[in-house]
Amino acid sequence: MELRKINIQDAHAQWEYTTALPADENGLTNPYHGVTYDEYKKLVLPALISYEHPVNMPEWFVPETYYYLWDEDRLVGEFRIRHRLTEALRNGAGHIGYSIRKGERGKGYGTEGLRRTLQIARSIVPEEEIYLRVNKDNIASQKVMLNNGAYLAGEDEAHFFMRIPKNR
Predict the structure, then answer these.
(1) What span, in angstroms and rounded, lies between the C-alpha atoms of 78 and 68?
(2) Across the beta sheet with 159-165, what order do the strands follow?
(3) Residues contacting 102, CB < 8 A, separation 6+
(4) pLDDT tens per residue, range 96-129
């Protein structure tokens, strides 16, 4: 398995994955659901790549890097690292968001992908803990987080707020 940063060489596979994701699934939003390949390659891909080192973004914008989990020649998941927290992210989505391709769920990809993403995030985020949020009804994702050393730090009506110590 390999975690690859978003790139131009893998554009077609990334487009297929991204546009197949629902607009909102288990709290992971996807404004690119259904865009054409041309739109993805000309507009979406350059924008997503630029989020790592943003220029001329609103003050609330946080740098974010996209990674894709590959198992040999198959793209099986997406992982996003937000480089720091705003107050909204601290009390919301946190540092990392991820998804696994529907046909590949339940095979350990979430746990391994999050493990690899945490290795990278630990060198990026300034906070002492990695913040994550999960829907209360998403038992599989809760297990992925727990398998990676998460603990329950709080909750609201719909979500659990999980934390993973950076120095774990």
Answers:
(1) 4
(2) 129-135, 159-165, 151-155
(3) none
(4) 999 999 999 999 999 999 999 999 999 999 999 9
Angle between helices 109-124 and 139-147 in degrees, nearest 10: 50
Q: What is the Cα–Cα distance from 106 to 94, expressed in whole angstroms?
A: 23
Distance, CA of 150 to CA of 168 (rounded, Å): 10
Domain ranges of the chain: 2-128
State CA 20 to chain mean position distance. 16
Report field, pTM of the whole predicted structure over 0.90: yes
Q: Can you give the length of the chain in residues?
A: 168
Q: For residue range 53-105, what is the model confidence (pLDDT) as tens digits?
A: 988 888 888 999 999 999 999 999 999 999 999 999 999 999 999 999 999 99
Q: Which residues contact 74 (CB under 8 A, 6 or more apart)?
A: 104
Going by C-alpha positions, the residue among 83, 23, 14, 75 that lies closest to residue 46 is 14
Angle at CA 47, nearest 5°, toward 29 and 78? Answer: 45
Q: What fold is seen in the domain 2-128?
A: Aminopeptidase (3.40.630)
65: Cα separation from own chain's centroid: 9
- Confirm if 81 and 67 have CB atoms less than 8 A apart: yes
